[in-house]
Write a structure and sequence with these properties.
By secondary structure, the protein is of the alpha/beta class. It is built from 21 helices and 12 strands.
């Protein structure tokens, strides 16, 4: 993505070649300079006691029956001495676990009111706030949200609406209904997915990006606001219970680690005392960043990463270099080398410590692959082999052994164009002889029989790639983008 200001077009043309050569996925050109998005560490914040008015009135917590909402409610009472809480969720007092939460908060000295309210409904929000009567509202903490995984090509208006309602619609309603109340704080829970991108979370990332931008908008209007773009929490809940080992391993490779609850609440306190409109409370593994696995937006947290990635790109392996490694080995040893490479990449994608856990004959689906991990494996194999493998790789070759055989054959084919040209020339010669000299003879029948045998062998090798998925032919699969095949892979692996 490139952003160029209109009046700077001439200067942009001059600097664009160097910017494009940098490998950055997005950048902006302003006043002849190239800017790239980077997260940096926040500066120190004032003590939480410097935030006046928080405990003077009622604090509204949305999504309060969820794990994070309940965690924040407890923290507001125990650490911030809030004595009146309005806890809102879709089911209100009928949600599981709320009786125990209310008893705990009441025992700590808080007055608790539950509201069954869909905060995406403007009239419902207005009615809920009118129910406060003479009580003043001092703060809003909006923790509500839902996940709706799906890449761009699979999104529909209905799926977008499901994710946007508790984020976009709800925050607009809360803003409009409270803007004249003189709040001490207006806190919305966003996600780091909107900052760094997250495979399969197109609508979720977009909804959270809106929260970040809207927080800045409120600040410009002179209203309190902060959007917290959280990383993943260790706290069990609706948004984390669905994560499998491969999901957590993928996040860890990107440098984002789960936040322990006590650490998350400490960052919540620091954010309340900050003057920033958007902060990213996230636990970063700098080791993963140094390994070059992190998204570009995180590279500034480890300055040496950019230089290392440049060096790695210059030394990136190619199909020919892989073939050179295999050259001179007996064929059985060459195939084993490629199988070991495939097993190592499969283990890395799944987050396994050793490739010994990857059985060559086990199906990828049984190993725990889904559409996201399938595409990630394709990308990793492209990088280490220099090949251009299709995104449907594990669909066409459903076990590590079959996949390794395919990679081996592709490597050999890419490394031996002279052999391919020679074989095609031989076939041209056979065609010419059949037409001109052997039109009707016993020799012609023997040659045809041999060619039919070769076609049968070739058909066995190409059978998987010749199969057509729903609405997508074999040739289409070869050229399909990641987004275009996520849905196909998802259906194959039995996920939405």
């Amino acid at each position: 993505i490139v952003l160029v200001e209109a009046e700077e077009t001439d200067e942009a043309v001059r600097v664009l070649p160097a910017a494009l050569a940098s490998g950055e996925p997005q950048f902006a050109v302003r006043d002849g300079e190239v800017f790239v998005p980077r997260l940096v560490k926040a500066t120190g914040t004032a003590p939480i006691a410097d935030l006046p008015g928080l405990a003077d009135g009622t604090v509204l917590v949305t999504g309060a029956s969820g794990s994070l909402g309940a965690l924040v409610a407890r923290h507001l009472v125990s650490e911030h001495k809030v004595r009146r809480l309005l806890l809102a969720s879709r089911r209100g007092a009928d949600a599981p676990g709320v009786a125990e939460l209310e008893a705990e908060l009441t025992a700590s000295g808080a007055e608790v009111t539950w509201a069954a309210c869909d905060v995406a409904d403007r009239e419902a929000v207005s009615g809920m706030l009118d129910g406060l009567g003479e009580q003043s509202l001092s703060a809003v903490v909006h923790t509500a949200g839902v996940l709706g995984d799906g890449i761009v090509a699979s999104l529909t208006p209905e799926r977008m609406r499901e994710v946007f309602r508790p984020k976009v619609d709800a925050v607009l309603n809360l803003h409009e209904c409270t803007r004249e109340m003189g709040l001490a704080a207006f806190v919305v829970f966003s996600s780091v997915a909107g900052m760094v991108g997250s495979a399969g979370q197109a609508s979720y990332a977009a909804a959270n990006s809106f929260l970040d931008a809207f927080s800045a908008h409120r600040r410009r209007e002179g209203l309190p606001a902060i959007s917290l773009a959280w990383g993943v929490w260790e706290q069990s809940g609706a948004m984390t219970d669905g994560l499998v080992e491969a999901d957590r391993a993928r996040m860890a490779r990107s440098g984002v680690l789960p936040l322990p609850p006590e650490e998350g609440l400490r960052l919540f306190d620091a954010a309340l005392a900050s003057d920033e409109a958007v902060l990213v409370p996230v636990r970063i593994d700098t080791g993963a960043l140094r390994a070059g696995e992190a998204p570009p937006v995180l590279r500034a947290l480890v300055p040496a990463v950019a230089a290392r990635r440049t060096a790695q790109a210059a030394a990136a392996p190619s199909a020919s270099s892989l073939a050179e490694r295999l050259e001179g080995m007996p064929e059985a040893e060459r195939e084993k080398t490629v199988l070991d490479l495939v097993r190592a990449e499969v283990a890395a994608v799944l987050g396994h410590a050793s490739d010994r856990t990857v059985r060559p004959e086990h199906a990828f689906q049984d190993l725990g692959f889904d559409s996201l991990t399938a595409v990630e494996l394709r990308n990793r194999l492209n990088k280490v082999t220099g090949l251009r493998l299709p995104a449907t790789l594990v669909f066409d070759h459903p076990t590590p052994a079959l996949l390794a055989r395919h990679v081996f054959m592709e490597t050999a084919g890419a490394a031996e164009p002279a052999l391919v040209d020679s074989l095609l020339a031989d076939l041209d010669r056979v065609e010419q002889e059949l037409v001109t000299k052997l039109a009707a003879s016993e020799a012609r029948d023997r040659i045809l029989s041999k060619l039919q045998g070769l076609l049968a062998i070739a058909g066995e090798f190409g059978k998987a790639s010749a199969q057509e998925g729903p609405g997508m032919g074999g040739s289409d699969l070869e050229s399909a983008t990641d987004d275009e095949v996520f849905d196909l892979l998802g259906k194959e692996f039995g996920i939405s």
